[in-house]
């Protein structure tokens, strides 16, 4: 129970003077009590986009643990449907603008979080980190991604991997593809081979899944250093190397399913395990969906129903993203929010959440025995001393919200005109206007 908070009247116990208690009350009301302040813990409204299968189960597990630990706090699930937060982020932006924040919301570590920080929409959590001994339980490079001007601003719950190629072994065999393609060229050959069988080569869902594919093709084609360089200030997107990567993207897109444009990522992922499509490139939340028990999960078997490999051309690199929870300025139930963040930050919380979510704990001390099969691979890769890191742009690490939206608009237009040269022009402009 998160009862003892620094700066709260309760924390100072009997020595609290009347004047200090009155000041604390005023500060709490003004919403500027610092992250150690107490506050209403009757409720916590938690905002995310984890509603669908493969998303909701992790949140449900975390909620159950939270409710057990905080029987007096009502958990209000304010999740808004739509993979990768496509709808949720718009709703969140308007709530924050209208000063009607939830008590805690999901924001990706990195550039996305920086937007909220710079807009003054979330509070620093330094005291929370100190009180809960959290400064050393996360990898340093992750803390760097949630720190601005010396202050830490969120509580990461996991690490997801973006660059995973999910495939149907039976369809590959039928198409005469002996092994999952390790390069972009081999991938294109494999897509052609599957096409000849009449099966769908590469499944795609809602438009954002094309953005997700784009980040994977950029990484696979440009290599890790080339990909990472794209997100540096003043980066040049007009190079022949980027053009070659976009040509690859255009070629790969020829083998995707147009009719799946209205389905979300679940529909596209399911096509692989159902034997309708050979490949899907998706983050490892798909793994939770594949293996979680029915009725929410698909209860499929790794090795027979589906298998995985690094996205083509990306072996040795972890394209990562991290879901993290925040304390908004003026959170109506600040005590509830801090209690929620405590559960999110705990080893127990992360080990309840991640095996269901298809991710690995952000903390370095998770119980490794809980992460089996694909997740064992993920945890091993993440911890390899020589693993290279690339930040997912679509899932908030390297691109701020404006850049993210501008790239999405460019990709949306590309889905109509299908011209990689025009796509490149739009991406050059998006980079120039990103303000990053
Ligand atoms: C990501 C998020 C993941 C997962 C995915 C699909 O942006 O970080 O946790 O929810 O979207 O919706």
Mean pLDDT: 91
Rounded to an integer in angstroms, the radius of gyration calculated over CA atoms is: 22 Å
- Terminal Cα span: 40 Å
Proportion in β-strands: 5-15%
The CATH topology name of the largest domain reads D-Maltodextrin-Binding Protein, domain 2
Query: Ranges with pLDDT <50 over ≥5 residues?
Result: 1-36
- The total beta strand count reads 15
CATH architecture of the largest domain: 3-Layer(aba) Sandwich
Tally of helical runs: 18
CATH class of the largest domain: Alpha Beta
Shape: globular
Number of domain modules: 2
**CATH homologous superfamily name of the largest domain?**
Periplasmic binding protein-like II
Strand order of the largest sheet: 2-1-3-13-6
Sheet having the most strands: 5 strands, mixed
**Ligands and ions found:** beta-D-galactopyranose
Q: What proportion of the residues is helical, as a percent range?
A: 40-55%
Question: What structural class do the secondary elements suggest?
Answer: alpha/beta
Summarize the structure.
By secondary structure, the protein is an alpha/beta fold.
Would you spell out the secondary-structure blueprint of this structure?
Elements (H helix, E strand, L loop, with lengths): L8 H4 L5 H13 L12 E5 L8 H14 L4 E4 L10 H10 L6 E5 L2 H8 L7 H6 L8 H6 L1 E2 L2 E2 L2 E2 L1 E4 L2 E4 L1 H6 L9 H12 L4 E3 L4 H23 L10 H14 L11 H9 L3 E5 L3 H7 L15 E4 L6 E5 L1 E3 L8 H12 L1 H11 L2 E2 L12 H9 L5 E4 L9 H17 L2 H13 L4
Parallel strand pairs: 1-2, 1-3, 9-10, 12-15
Antiparallel strand pairs: 3-13, 4-5, 6-13, 7-12, 7-14, 8-10, 8-11
Helix pairs in contact: 3-14, 3-15, 10-11, 10-17, 11-18, 17-18
The site of beta-D-galactopyranose has 14 residues, from loops.
